[in-house]
Design brief:
heterodimer, A: 328 residues, mainly alpha, 15 helices, 0% strand, B: 225 residues, alpha+beta, Alpha-Beta Plaits, 6 helices, 9 strands, 26% helix, 15% strand
Chain lengths: 328, 225
């Protein structure tokens, strides 16, 4: 058992290890949480304050922190972590690089999401600044800047929605750009990662909102979140089936890669048990079978969300490792 | 009048097409032209005896640290029955692709194709060590240099022997002349002459990387890629 685990985690063609899977996982959460927060905010009636909604608060915490965490993981994983600034400085040296465009995307996304947080939580932030850093508001330009972004709220939100979707697909393109591995070099990967990123973003937002900001089943946005979860899970299943069937129509190496990844061995077990079983089927089944009363119980909501997170993280690990098992 | 002009145009198009095909047919390897030279290599597997003198010469000339290597000679399983058994040898090293995946993915431009020589090289100062190029290379010839912490690999001795006007170390030292190095843009070079005389194959050519490492297959049978 230990030996098979050792073989599953260490093999010759393996270049990128588990930190990259964590990186892809947290970026997906950020992208998904941002999309969810925007949808909830757009559905809120004019009288309700977005800043008071537990789900929007949870998402506003997850969105920037998950990107920062992801970038920290990426930097620590470099062989020269102190040279990380060169990725920002030379990001346009190779316009074709997916990773280079990712860096551009992170910068825009981080600035845009911070601006969005500043306008959604304007009152709360004002109160905090008045208490701890009153000099900041007297600094020339700060209030002017704040008022200016206030005026462009709608276009800002549409831009953020586009950036969040781009971040979701970026996690897939980063791997699908690798022609050296048939299972990774698949056009469906960005869509699959976008869908699973949405799932994990919704799940993580629900967990954080329920634990820290006492979100309940009747909190505005909770029903909406659940309505979104199911079609996304079905879409993930469909995309996984398209990947397997499509690669079976492919060349010799595609078929070999599919066989090694999905049939027999540690990663195949992880895929069928954790990704499909725990992450997709179990939550779908629970929602079909549970009574309305049970569905409103917080334990039920939390356990369904945790199962989804386990499934999405397993998918990231599976694609990263099983993908690198078979070189082209 | 109208009719004959159309005929003339059709004839012209056909002639052009024929000429293009004709040129492409005779110079299979002259695919694109970079500013200056387009260095390439032939590994003649029928001449290679697997002595690995090339591996040692490379390490010494380019100061390659222990634990990593720019060049490996991979020995096959023994073929035939003793005493008529022998091995096939395969050179594992950078193919200096014209459409290099490592260069395409590099986020900082540290991986580049030198326009004067067509050699794929790495700027160690620009490299941050994200290992995207190592993952992207279908030939798995890149490594992280344990001293500089940058990605590195064979550069056809661009910064050592070639800079001094000498052949790459592996070519110089090969006792059976199994390695031929030269400029694909020079029709009189040894490499172009050899390519016109011998049957060659290129590893994983179907990936569209346009590798510039040509191999003369050893003995009969199907070439395994």
């Amino acid at each position: 058992m230990m030996e098979s685990l050792h073989h599953a985690l260490h093999f010759d063609s393996l270049v990128w290890h588990w930190p990259i899977a964590v990186y892809l996982f947290v970026l997906g959460i950020s992208s998904g949480a941002m999309c969810l927060a925007l949808v909830i905010k757009w559905k809120l009636s004019a009288q309700e304050s977005a800043a008071k909604n537990p789900l929007i608060i949870a998402a506003a915490i997850l969105v920037p922190s998950m990107v920062i965490l992801g970038l920290l993981i990426l930097i620590v994983d470099l062989t020269k972590p102190l040279d990380f600034w060169k990725v920002i400085f030379y990001q346009f040296a190779n316009p074709k690089s997916v990773m280079g465009r990712g860096v551009t995307l992170f910068l825009l996304y981080q600035i845009a999401t911070f601006a969005w947080i500043a306008i959604v939580f304007r009152e709360e932030l004002m109160a905090l600044i008045n208490r701890f850093m009153p000099w900041l508001l007297k600094t020339p330009g700060v209030l002017w800047l704040w008022n200016t972004i206030d005026k462009i709220e709608k276009p800002l939100e549409i831009s953020i929605a586009i950036l969040a979707v781009l971040l979701g697909v970026y996690t897939g393109f980063l791997l699908s750009a690798l022609t050296a591995y048939p299972l990774l070099n698949q056009p469906v990967l960005p869509l699959l990662f976008l869908a699973s990123g949405l799932s994990s973003g919704i799940a993580a937002t629900i967990i954080l909102a329920a634990i820290l900001f006492s979100a309940k089943a009747d909190t505005f946005g909770m029903a909406l979140s659940h309505r979104l979860e199911q079609p996304i899970a079905w879409a993930e299943l469909a995309l996984l089936m398209i990947l397997i069937i499509g690669m079976n129509f492919g060349g010799e190496m595609d078929k070999l890669a599919i066989e090694a990844a999905f049939w027999g061995g540690f990663w195949a077990n992880l895929f069928w048990i954790a990704v499909v079983g725990i992450g997709l089927f179990l939550p779908l089944l629970m929602n079909q079978l549970a009574s309305v009363k049970l569905k409103h119980c917080n334990t039920f909501i939390l356990s369904s969300a945790i199962l989804t997170l386990i499934g999405v993280f397993s998918l990231r690990m599976f694609i990263l490792y099983a993908g690198q098992m078979t070189p082209a | 009048m109208e009719h004959s002009r159309r005929k003339f145009l059709a004839g012209l198009a056909a002639t052009t097409m024929f000429a293009t095909v004709g040129v492409a047919g005779t110079t299979v390897i002259q695919t694109i032209t970079v500013d200056g030279k387009r260095y390439a290599m032939i590994h003649d597997e029928t001449l290679c005896i697997g002595c690995e003198a090339c591996v040692d010469a490379c390490r010494e000339t380019n100061n390659v640290p222990e634990g990593v290597s720019r060049l490996e000679i991979i020995r096959s399983e023994p073929r035939g029955e003793f005493p008529d058994a022998d091995y096939k040898f395969f050179r594992k090293s950078c193919q200096h692709c014209e459409d290099a995946p490592c260069v395409n993915v590099c986020p900082t431009g540290a991986s580049f194709i030198d326009t004067e020589t067509g050699i794929v090289d790495v700027d160690p100062d620009r490299c941050v060590g994200c290992m995207y190029c190592i993952a992207a290379c279908p030939y798995k010839v890149r490594y992280i240099d344990p001293v500089t912490k940058s990605a590195d690999k064979c550069d056809f001795c661009r910064k050592t022997n070639l800079a001094k006007g000498q052949l790459p170390a592996c070519v110089q030292v090969c006792p059976t002349q199994a390695l031929i190095f030269g400029d694909l843009n020079d029709p009189n070079s040894d490499i172009v002459q050899t390519l016109q005389q011998k049957t060659v194959y290129r590893y994983k050519k179907h990936l569209g990387t346009k590798p510039k490492m040509f191999r003369v297959p050893d003995l009969k049978g199907e070439i395994e890629l």
